[in-house]
Amino acid sequence: MEKLVIEGGKPLSGTIRIHGAKNAALPVLAASIMAEGTHTIENVPDLLDIHVMLDILRALGCRAELRGDTVTVDTSSANSSHIPEELMKQMRSSVFLMGPLLARFGKVQIYQPGGCAIGERKINLHLQGLQALGAVVEESGHTIVCWAKRLKGADIVLDFPSVGATENIMMAAAMAEGITTIYNAAREPEIVDLQNYLITMGAKMIGAGTDTITIEGVPKLTPTTYKVIPDRIVTGTMMMAAAVTRGNVTLENVNPAHLTSVTHVLKRAGVQVTTDDDIINVTCHTRPKAVERVVTAPYPGFPTDLQPQMMVLLSLAEGISIIKETIFDGRFKHVDELSRMGADIRTDLNSAFIRGVPRVYGATVESTDLRAGAALVIAGLAARGTTVVEQVHHIDRGYDRIELLLGQLGAKVSRYTEVASKSLLS
Ligand code: EPU
Known about the structure:
The protein is of the alpha+beta class.
C-alpha cells in the first residue's frame, strides 16, 4: 500500500513530455494477437494496466516485453483463447481480447471483467456486436464463452457509442468474411488510432473518427511497427494542475486537437491556453471563474475521464458551477474526499453543484478510482498544507509515476509505503 504526500500551494512551472495513451495502447496490444509474428509498438506508457495486458498476452502463449516505451510482442506461439479469471478481474480492458481471439482462433473464454468502480459497466454491446457477426455467446455465472466457425460481416447499430464495443467489433470484423458497417460508433481519437494500426497490418476499413465505420474483412493480417498517440487524459490532467496552482506549464508530445472541448471549458474559466503543433501551454495567474455548466459526453464532448479533475478547478473558481456526468453512474466518489479538503459540492443524481471556495486545505484522502485519485492529487497541489492521498495503485493504472511528472514542474510530491512510512521515490 502506497500513498502520496503533497505539500501544496506551489505554482507549477516548466515543461514536461506527455506519455503515450493507455486507452490507445491497450486495444492496439490486444489487436496484435490477430497477426502471427513480431510486432513493435512504440510510445507505450509504463503503467499497471499495460503490465496486466502483457501478462494476459503471455498467458495466451505470446512473448511480450516492455523496454523503455516500446513493447515487442511475438504472437507466433499464441496457443490459448482462454483469458485467466485472475487477470480478467484486474482490468476491464481484458475484454478487448474477445474480438481478436475470435478472429484468430474462432473461440474465446472470458469472465466478467473488473476495472475502476465508477458505476455499472456492462458488456452487452460488445456481446451483441459479436453475435451480429455470427458468434455464439454462452454465459454461465461469471463465465462467458463465444465461438464462431467463421465471422461474417453485418450491419451493426450500437444503442450507445461505446468505446470498447466499437473497438471490439472493429477488430473482429477486420478478419470477418464480407463487409461490416458500425453505425453510432464511438468517435474517440483512440478509435482512429486503432483503425490506423489495423490498416498498417493490412486491414481494410474507413470512417473511424465519424459515427459510421465500414470494414471489409481480409483473411490475414501481418505484424507491423506502430506508434500510439499521446495520452489526452494525462494532458488534460496536467492542464488542470497548471491552472489550479496558478502556474505556467508547457506540455510536449501532445495533440491539441484531441483536447478541443477541454481547452474551450478552461478558456471559459479564464485560463490562458495556447497551442502549437504538438505543444500546449497553460498559464493562469488569477482565480478561475465558474463555468455555468459542464456536461460530460462521448467525444468530441467533454471527457468523463477529466470530470473529477475539472471539479477540483471549479471548486476553487469564483462563483457557482454545475457538472453533469452522463457517461458513468458512479463517478462522483471524489466529491466526499474533496469536501473533506474544504470544497463546497452538493450532488443530486448525476449533477454536482459546486460553490467555489477561495482555497482548499490539506487532508488525508482516499483515491477510490483512477481519475478520482488524479483529482485528489491536483487538489493537494492547490491546497494549503499537506495532503496525503491513499490507495495510489489506482492512480498508477493511468499515470506513469505521477509524482515524478509533477516533480519536474516543481511540485513537492513524495511516495511512501504505508507500512514503513519510508520514501520510495521523490
Ligand atoms: N456500456 C453499456 N454496455 C456496453 C458497454 C458500455 O451499457 O456493452 C455503457 C457503460 O456502462 C458506460 C458507457 O456505456 O456507462 C460508456 O462505456 P464505454 O464502453 O464507452 O467505455 P469503456 O470502453 O468501458 C473507455 C475508457 C474509459 C473511458 C470510457 C468513456 C478504455 C480502456 N477505457 O471505457 O477510460 O472512461 O471509454 O470515454 O478505453 C479511464 O481511463 O479512466 C477510463 C475509465
